[in-house]
Amino acid sequence: MNKFTVALSALAVTLVASGAQASADARVDSQKMSTSALQELIQDRGAVILTTGEDLFDRYVASKSECLIGESTERAYVPTADSSSAFVGYTCVSPDPLND
Fold first, then answer.
1. In a domain, 94, yes or no
2. 49-69 exposure pattern, b = at least 16 Cβ within 10 A, e = fewer
3. CA dist., res. 90 & res. 86, Å (int)
4. Which residue range is the domain that position 78 belongs to?
5. For residue 35, is it within any domain?
6. Which residues of the chain fall short of a pLDDT of 50?
């Protein structure tokens, strides 16, 4: 291997490792934040990955503009620090092909 290939490989490993860490940090525990703080976070970011329980998580959005083409939104309720089921935004849902 030449020096360029070694340097490029080292850079790739560093980027992948930092991306994995950023991904893990990006998840927010809904039960550690108040309802209003979560609503504000989702509005500010547009979309947030929330952990809602042990090994449970989903993507919550502020509006349909954060969804893929063809998807719609569904109101989302999650446990928060101050409620067992609080409205925090929406989830994106794909159309059900059985109901078309």
1. yes
2. ebbbeeeeeeebbbeeebbee
3. 12
4. 27-99
5. yes
6. 4, 6, 8, 17-24
Classify residue 64: in a domain, yes or no: yes
Q: Which helix (H) or strand (E) holds 59?
A: strand 56-61
Sheet holding 47-53, edge to edge: 28-29, 47-53, 56-61, 83-93, 72-80
Mean pLDDT of the residues in the chain: 83
Q: What is the pLDDT of residue 28?
A: 94
Residue 22 forms part of a structural domain: no
Q: What's the structural domain count of the chain?
A: 1
pTM for the whole structure: 0.70
> What percent of the chain has a predicted confidence (pLDDT) above 90?
64
Partners of 83 in the β-ladder: 80
How many residues does this entry show for the chain? 100
**What one-character DSSP code corresponds to residue 42?**
H
